[in-house]
Amino acid sequence: MAVSERSDFNRRAMTDIVTSSSTSRSNLKPTKRPRRRPQSERREEATNTILDAAEKLFALHGRDGVTLRAIATAAGVDTALIHYYFGDKDGVFRAVFARRAGEVNAARIAAMDAYEARVGDATTIEGVLDVFLRPIYEMVIEKGEGWVYFAAIVGHANASHFGGKDVMAENFDPIVQRFIGMLKALAPEAPPERIYWFFDLVSSSLTHGLAQTGRIDDVSGGLCTSADLGSALETMIAVFSSGFRSVGR
Fold it and tell me: Among residues 98, 94, 71, which one has the least CA distance to residue 82?
């Protein structure tokens, strides 16, 4: 190869190398690190995971039958994280209760407001019972497994001496007092104690029905099932409406 030819070859080779090197560098883009999720988002996910696990355990075993270690194992977290967010087991239980109770109360308030706006002073016992009972029944029917567990916890809390009275009062007393006020307006001549007893019987029937214990399945030989919450709701409204008419007598 002549000297001039070698020079041309070398120049072309160097040009190719430089071009290739420049192209390679232009294709090298800095690797982006995954976006770190906001702390509030991570906290919400962690607390919901813990509360979901605790809710199921409390529903199946009662508050006294559950330990923090069992909750941590079910949630796949360390017990230290539960202490950090909730303090102790009582804190977890109250948080489990409050999480869904707030949604129930909001639905009841909306139903009561809409009913009173629609009928004014012409309320009926059927209508008053409906706006108190239907929201929580429909949530348990429509919203899935977590609500079934919550209903079992409410039933246990309303029927036992293990401290459930306090969480029931914390979460439901304001809406209960509004319901009782609506009952009193329907029967202004009724002795107050009979109104309160009426509420107590409604409340007991409500939470027992929501707990879906299966007792009615056995007693009825399968004719009725505790999972048929729609039938339970309509029967409660019919039975208690008739019973209320005797309260003021």
Answer: 71
